[in-house]
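Quick one, tokens below:
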């Protein structure tokens, strides 16, 4: 029997994940070409490596198809309703840090807070006949955040890439997106609301709460966790 560890399949997230485990005496590696999603694990018994996109890992954890997985806090919170019942946070990994924020055009000089945004959204609907549009791929997180803040008159517009450019392209009036340095926001003449931080995210190791475990699996998971927590 083996337990399955899902990690991002490419890019800096994969490289940094491999480095993080290597510092704990666990070697992760690809087997085959960059186009093959196969991998190997050395340094701990009974663990298989599964290479997936970061966005797939929350779903695979929640379905019980992998035991452990590395992905961002933002993706787990966005993709899994009642995520605490489905996965457990094992360890923040110290890389991939980014903030999910709400930003508006810099020339909106009277809009600096969520209360200001609420007032602007109401005025926008009166003046234009439709709701102020916020471009994002984080529908669940943004909707919950704005509901708790009392912002009502808006519509979410789906954006899977180049979200900051939607305001310039006139497909949205504001954005809710991940940012690490703020440079892309500034380049697109956007500003962060003073209280517009929705979530601080980073790469994190998660454990599935729903995967079925026999006695052998329990022992393998315990040994794997001992290696992680020994750092």
């Amino acid at each position: 029997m083996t337990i399955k560890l899902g990690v991002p399949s490419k890019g800096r997230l994969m490289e940094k994940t491999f480095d993080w485990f290597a510092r704990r005496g666990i070697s992760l590696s690809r087997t085959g070409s960059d186009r093959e999603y196969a991998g190997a694990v050395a340094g701990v018994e009974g663990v298989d490596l599964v290479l997936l996109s970061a966005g797939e890992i929350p779903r695979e954890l929640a379905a019980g198809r992998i035991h452990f997985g590395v992905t961002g806090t933002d993706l787990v919170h966005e993709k899994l309703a009642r995520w605490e019942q489905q996965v457990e946070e094992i360890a923040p990994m110290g890389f991939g840090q980014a903030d999910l924020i709400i930003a508006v055009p810099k020339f909106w000089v009277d809009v600096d807070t969520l209360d200001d945004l609420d007032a602007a959204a109401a005025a926008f609907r009166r003046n234009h006949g439709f709701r102020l549009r916020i471009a994002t791929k984080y529908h669940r997180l943004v909707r919950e955040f704005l509901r708790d803040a009392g912002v009502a008159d808006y519509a979410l517009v789906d954006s899977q890439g180049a979200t900051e450019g939607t305001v310039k392209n006139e497909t949205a009036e504001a954005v809710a997106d991940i940012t690490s340095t703020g440079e892309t926001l500034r380049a697109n003449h956007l500003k962060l609301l003073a209280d517009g931080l929705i979530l601080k995210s980073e790469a994190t190791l998660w454990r599935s709460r729903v995967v079925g475990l026999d006695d052998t699996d329990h022992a393998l998971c315990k040994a794997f966790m001992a290696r992680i927590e020994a750092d």
